[in-house]
Amino acid sequence: MSDATVFATSYFTAIRNLIGDLETLRELNDRLAQDSTLFTRYFQSDGARKDIDAAAITAAENAIAQLIFSFDSGSPPQKAALFNLL
């Protein structure tokens, strides 16, 4: 049987991390919208990953937009239920 206190602490930490990660992704997606050359320049750099391409970035950008939309949607918004636990 797992320790309920450890479980709850892990649960709340995961929610805090999820919110933080979604907000970070929101900011990064906003930066990408402001400067669409960021990944073009990345792919031209020596450190660029060779296993992904621009289509993968576009797919990820669209997925992030959907996650943020879901996070922000509802009345009250879905994020309110998560923030309520912090």
Going by helix content, strand content and strand pairing, the class is mainly alpha
Radius of gyration: 17 Å
Largest sheet: none
Number of strands: 0
Percent in strands: under 5%
Oligomer: single chain
Helicity level, as a percent range? over 70%
Taking the alpha carbons of the first and last residues, their distance comes to 25 Å
Low-confidence stretches: none
Count of domains:
1
H/E topology pattern: HHHH
Mean pLDDT, to the nearest integer, reads 94
Count of separate DSSP helical elements: 4
What best-fitting shape do the alpha-carbon axes yield? elongated
Describe the structure in brief.
This protein has 4 helices and no strands. With 86 residues, it is an all-alpha fold.
Question: Which properties best describe this structure?
Answer:
about 0% strand; about 90 residues; mainly alpha
Explained architecture:
The chain is an all-alpha fold. The chain has one domain (4-83). It is built from 4 helices and no strands. The longest helix has 31 residues, at 4-34. The model has no long low-confidence stretch (mean pLDDT 94).
Secondary structure elements and pairings:
Layout: H1 4-34, H2 38-44, H3 54-72, H4 78-83
Helix pairs in contact: 1-3
